[in-house]
Amino acid sequence: MAWIRKKNPKVKWLHCIIHRQALESKRMNAHLHETLNEAVKVINFIKARPLNSRMFKLLCQEMGSEHQHLLLHTEVRWLSRGKILNRLFELRQEVHMFLLEQKFAFSSLFENQDWVCRLAYLADIFDKLNDLNLSMQGFRTDELSLNSKMCAFIKKLEFWLKKVQRNSVSVFPTLDKFADDSEIDNLNTICDCNREYLTKLRDELVDIEPRFDNILAKKQPQVSH
């Protein structure tokens, strides 16, 4: 930056919008935060211990599972949580069986439909955030294009909010399929949790740049997920 200012003293700079978006997206309510922490502990219990990892692989092979490994969580690459949580959700039955065999206390989590619903929702929302993050990287990116993509994402948040306000989770495919397969009729609790997080995320992303306030003042067109 010092070299650039030496060449052009009038140059302007701003904090990376991707970094600010990442920080805002990490804030969530207590229930979702607790679910995320418990999911990470389950993953690390299996993946970070070589013996457990090998035993889990054998279990998956015996069960004919599509995947045989969990993905290791690291805080540095936190936006990869979408893939990490999706893999945990896909292997939830195998993980449940393994934790029962190991007498690990968190095995009961996978018997709790509310907890599994929150896990599915986290997998979906982090997957969407990861897509946003990736779209804002690469060559030929500038402030205008980044702001445009952020504005579009905020509009999507508005659309998702309208859905969950009607107790619909159709815009979150992992959660929607689980709710349908498990015949969960009452989605009020998970929708309340989702609505709280989406509202907070939208408001905090709007606070990143004052110009985003204009988005909420306009009539929002319907945006597909």
Automatic annotation (TrEMBL):
Tree of life domain: Eukaryota
Protein name in UniProt: Zinc finger BED domain-containing protein 5
